[in-house]
Amino acid sequence: MTGTPTRVFVARLAGIAVFDPAGDQVGRVRDVVVALRLGSRPPRVLGLVVEVSPRRPVFLPITRVTVIEADAIVFDGRLNVRRFQQRESETLVLAEMLDRTVRLTETGEAVGVVDVAIEPTRTRDWLVSKVAVRRGRGRAGRNGRPGRMRGPGLRRGGETFVVDWDAVHGFSAVEHGQGAAGLLAAFEKMRPADLAGIVHELPAKRRGEVAAALDDERLADVLEELPQDDQIEILERLEVDRAADVLEAMEADDAADLLGELPTEQRERLLTLMEPQEAAPVRRLLTYAENTAGGLMTTDPVIVPPDATVADALARIRNPDLNPALAAQVYVCRPPTATPTGRYLGTVHFQRLLREPPPTLVAGIVDSDLDPLRPTMPLQDVAIYLATYNLVAGAVVDDNGHLLGAVTIDDVLDHLLPDDWREAVMDASAELSGDPEEEALRGGRAGPGEPRPTDRGTPP
Q1: Alpha-carbon span 364 to 381, nearest angstrom
Q2: Are 84 and 57 in contact (CB under 8 A)?
Q3: Ramachandran angles phi, psi of 453, nearest 5°
Q4: How many CB atoms lie within 10 A of CB 232?
Q5: Which of 172, 197, 243, 272 could form a disulfide with 460 if both were Cys (CB 3.0 to 4.6 A apart)?
Q6: What's the CA gap between 207 and 235, in Å, rounded?
Q7: How far is CA 351 from CA 180, 397, 422, in A?
Q8: What is the pLDDT of residues 99-153, one digit of tens each?
């Protein structure tokens, strides 16, 4: 394998780009697939799970990888885009092996798995050769939950060292309370929607471990991108106090949608545990029918008083955590500027802000010609309104002229699509014929011209 190091630590492959021979990126590495074997024999690497657009994990046989570098993987150009489905005899390194507790064969001491190294052999096979482990406990994160690890040896509170594969045992045992700090560290820079795709495909036990290891804000972001069934399952696995904390960290409209699916008693208990100022907008949203402007809106758009300057408004919409649709315009209201606000005066689009001198007052450039949305307006009318005026968001104002929130185009699309659209995107699979080389590699049969080790693909 030209340009490939002799040893690669798998956690460092997570998220790196995968290119075809022409230099075009086809996706990013999500995981590495191995087959555990009997006794102390090192697992055989079968291939990579590569995420291609849109959110489709596919299998790339390791025999087709030609280059592995620090920031890129190159393959020979042949890729079966049939959706990857893990088989019983296969193990995912990042999802299932990191964070495990194993024991040193010589002393029986329990250690935690930080990373796993793979190496090529002379027969073109790749094997798991080394295991990076940590002795002792690491530093706790927020609220007593595990802190994030940023790579071997970088987490405080425990000695990290590398041992041969046969120097540890316990990978094949079922483990309870495995934790997920290493898995999350590998995907630390991944967008919430992409991490949600990974979480969706994990077994229920592993989903619970990932949820326990994520901090409240990150878990809230992931929950917002998951199918509704996954949201409910994860929320119900959390301790009730933490579930309330996570709901507080979610956008009010997403929290309301999730709470609206729970039994009344459970919903009220969670709302009671939430901070009053966080629960109040969620309670307001729950009073509106789901498919109305009031049920669709977010209660936290960008609001400025009339004496704010263009510079003030631009500073507000530069917030990198702001939804792009909400950042497209600011809403001008008399105090108070928290919803429900004082009298709504109008909207200023960001394009107008860019054309005006920074000291200009927003009151002088406000657009008040367009009638705002009303909270009882049905979904179809909201969609027509946004389409007619080429808007990505619209103000929702009550009969007394108070701004209640804003409806964004992404929320409209979310409700116009079928209820299970997120799950359909994550679960969609191409009806393509099987790949003989892939089947040979994963099923234990030798491909054309390939040597056939007698133990290939043997399950543990």
Answers
A1: 30
A2: yes
A3: -65, 140
A4: 15
A5: 172
A6: 11
A7: 44, 23, 32
A8: 899 999 999 999 999 999 999 988 778 999 999 999 875 433 334 333 333 333 3
Question: Tokens 């406000």 belong to which residue?
Answer: 366
* Helix/strand/coil for 294: helix
> Is the bond leading into 54 cis (omega within 30 degrees of zero)?
yes
Residues 6+ apart with CB under 8 A from 27: 17, 18, 50, 51, 52, 53, 58
Where do we find the tokens 């052999």?
121
Both tokens of residue 154?
């970088």
Q: Could you give the angle at the alpha carbon of 219 between the alpha carbons of 319 and 170, nearest 5°?
A: 140
CB 163 within 8 A of CB 133: yes
Q: Where are the beta strands (DSSP E) in 62-104?
A: 65-68, 72-75, 91-92, 101-104
In angstroms, what CA-CA distances link 102 with 203, 302, 348?
20, 50, 59
Distance CA 401, CA 346 (A): 10
Contact at 8 Å (CB) between 217 and 145?
no
Residue 171 token pair: 């990978």
Neighbouring C-beta atoms of residue 13, cutoff 10 Å: 22
**Coil/strand/helix, residue 388:** helix
Report d(CA 329, CA 314) in Å as an integer.
10
Give the closest residue to 303 by CA, choosing from 349, 338, 278, 277: 338
Tell me the two tokens of residue 143: 């609220």
- The angle that helices 240-249 and 216-223 make with each other, rounded to 10 degrees, is 70
User: In 187-292, which ranges are continuous DSSP H helix?
Assistant: 192-201, 204-213, 216-223, 228-237, 240-249, 252-259, 264-273, 276-286
Going through 312-408 in order, the beta strands assigned E by DSSP cover: 329-333, 344-349, 393-397, 403-408
Rg over alpha carbons for the chain, rounded to the nearest Å, is 26
Report the 10 Å Cβ neighbour count for 331. Answer: 27
Mean pLDDT of 262-284: 95
Whether residue 273 contacts residue 247, with contact meaning beta carbons closer than 8 Å, is answered with no
Nearest-5° Cα angle at 306, 305 to 310:
95
For tokens 């209640």, the residue is: 404
